[in-house]
Amino acid sequence: MRLFLHQLRTEQLVYWRSREAAVFTFIFPLLLFVLLGSVYTGDIYGVPASQALLAALLAYGCATVAFAGLAITLVLRREQAILKRLRATPLSPMTYVAALLTSTLAVFALETVALFLLGRAVFGTPFPSRIGSLALLIVLGAICFAAMGVGLSGLVRSAEGSSAVVNLIVLPMAFLTGAFGPTRHYPHFLRAVGDVLPLKYLVDLSNAVYLHHHSFWSQGTAIAVLLAWGATGVAVAALKFRWEPREA
Predict the structure, then answer these.
(1) 47: CB partners within 8 A, 6+ apart
(2) Total domain count for the chain?
(3) Distance from CA of residue 80 to its chain's centroid?
């Protein structure tokens, strides 16, 4: 437990001291919320546009923190031989992974609080009524997208290409799944692509819990799809994740 807490503290210090990580994974969703909330007017999904955007960007924040941020971090640490050196310390791989995932969950939880406070201050959006369901959403989203992030890190070969690869996945996925606004006017084939992507189901789950005050457990399909994507990430990580640098 002492090693876990020490590594968790280290992960938090490293994250908040990295300006690039803080801006890309933490600040960017907040900026998008302000920008998009200032552009969209009227109602979306039968609620004020600012509320619908808040629910959607909550899911997008999970993708940036737990998926994109974790994948880039692991690739950089692998290629800089940091992961290799960690294997030579008393810190076990399971303890390291647990601390990393817990740190990711903590950052996403803080992102969620920041989004709700910002929405309340700027747009007057209400706070969530189902706190327990929201907490379960945060945990499920963070775990599943973190698993996918770890799996992706095993597929990215170079540190230089990690950011490009991750952005090539995250940004189109956000547009196709409704994280940046409604997709009902998109061509059918684009909506069909969005329907198989994991972020769509986290957006749907966020909409159900925050906008429509449904229970987390009432969204069985969304939960099952997210768990399936998370399991896929674990399977890919088991096959492809490396502790040693790939580059010569």
Answers:
(1) 211
(2) 1
(3) 24
